[in-house]
Structures are given as structure tokens and as C-alpha cells.
Design brief:
160 residues; 6 helices; 68% helix; 0% strand; globular
Amino acid sequence: MPILTDRQRIELAVPAYLLYALTGAPGVFVPADPDLRARAEADIAELRGNLRTACLEPMADLTPAKRQALIRRLERIKRQVTADWHERPALGLMLMLWCFLKDLTDREVLILWEGSTMDRAMQKLMPMCAYGLQKQTADAAAQEQARALLNHLQAEGLYR
């Protein structure tokens, strides 16, 4: 396995970390049927576990001090990016993150290896968001917000 630079480690972790932050907000996922609440909570817990692992995996081989430094950088980036999220609808944020991730994977800036924890998280996330994402797939605002997110991260020296 090749040695990753700090920038590459952060680039691998950012999408999972942002999704992890969003999926942790109360009321982001509401089961269509109240009888499915326990199943939904289990699915969300599994999704969040995969996202947490996916954002920490790129740093697994680092010393504790170096790992903490990169986690602090990741947290700083998240704080900057998510500053206005409380004012926006969760579905719009999810769609924006989906557009952001799709752009990165389409351009092969980020590769989700089949069976990886991020791939498993995305496999779990898609059915949860299917209805809302299908209704808004052509949402130009989400695509513009995804471009703005990418521009912000590129200003930080990421995803060039």
C-alpha cells in the first residue's frame, strides 16, 4: 500500500466526515412507517459506524500525535463547511453532499473501492435517501452548493 500524504488522508476522510456529521443530526432520517422505527435506528447506527470508520481509516497507520493533528484539521474543515447547515433542510444538504461525492468519484479524484467501509456506507445511504433524491435529482441549487463546497475545499488546498 502506498504511503499517503496528509492532504490525501484528509481528502479521503472529508466526504465520510461530512456525511457522518449530517447523519448525526436529529430528525435527518424519519422512517416512512412508524412501525419501522427500530429497524431505521439500527440502519442509521450501522451507517454511522461505517462513516466513522471510513473517516478514520486513512489515518489508521499514523502515530497517535499525528492522527490527532489530522483529526483536528478535519474538524476545523467541518466547522467551516457546516457553519450554515442548521439553516438548511436536511434533504438539500444530503443532495448537496451526494452531488459533491458523485463529482469526486466521476472525476476519479476519490475512488470508493467495492466492499470498503465507505462503499458499504453509501450502499446503506442510498435506499434511505432514494425517495428524496429521486424527486430532486435535477436540483440545480444542490449542484451549485456542491460546487461551492468543492471551491471552498480547493481554497484549503484539497481536491486539486
